[in-house]
Design goal:
Elements: E1 3-6, H1 11-17, E2 21-24, E3 27-34, H2 47-64, E4 72-79, H3 85-96, E5 102-107, E6 117-124
Parallel strand pairs: 4-5
Antiparallel strand pairs: 1-2, 2-3, 3-6, 4-6
Length: about 130
């Protein structure tokens, strides 16, 4: 079974030794993704904007891997403050509202103080 590594070009990928996504068979595993602007690399103050940016980066990785958000079966959201829950709902709902993957939200610290959310997803290619 072939393993395909997808890179977003983040310096952390080389520095720490990971891929934005890994495709193994019918599965695609997208690494935890934070919300810096995909073009400017600037981290917005708003957790809703960070969420939207993370989803753009994830969507690009899924597309490059031959998957789409419709293939996502599992999502995990890490937020640094439980007060962010209401703010991340609209951008998450815009993407996952009809897909409704199994999901978990965890309140945790992230590696940089400006990071307010990190999202990871797992996708499965439907057969037949």
């Amino acid at each position: 079974m072939t393993r395909t590594l997808i890179s977003s070009g983040s310096p952390f990928e080389v520095q720490v030794g990971y891929s934005r996504a890994v495709v193994q068979g019918d599965w695609c595993f997208v690494a935890g993704t934070t919300g810096s602007d995909p073009e400017t690399k600037v981290m917005p103050e708003s957790v809703a904007e960070q969420t939207a940016n993370a989803l753009k980066i994830i969507g690009k990785a899924l597309d490059e891997a031959g998957f789409s958000f419709a293939d996502v079966v599992r999502a995990t959201y890490y937020i640094t403050d439980p007060a962010y829950w209401d703010q991340i709902g609209p951008p998450l709902g815009a993407v996952f509202g009809d897909i409704r993957p199994a999901a978990t939200c965890v309140v945790a610290g992230l590696i940089k103080p400006e990071m307010k959310i990190e999202i990871e997803v797992t996708a499965l290619k439907a057969r037949g």
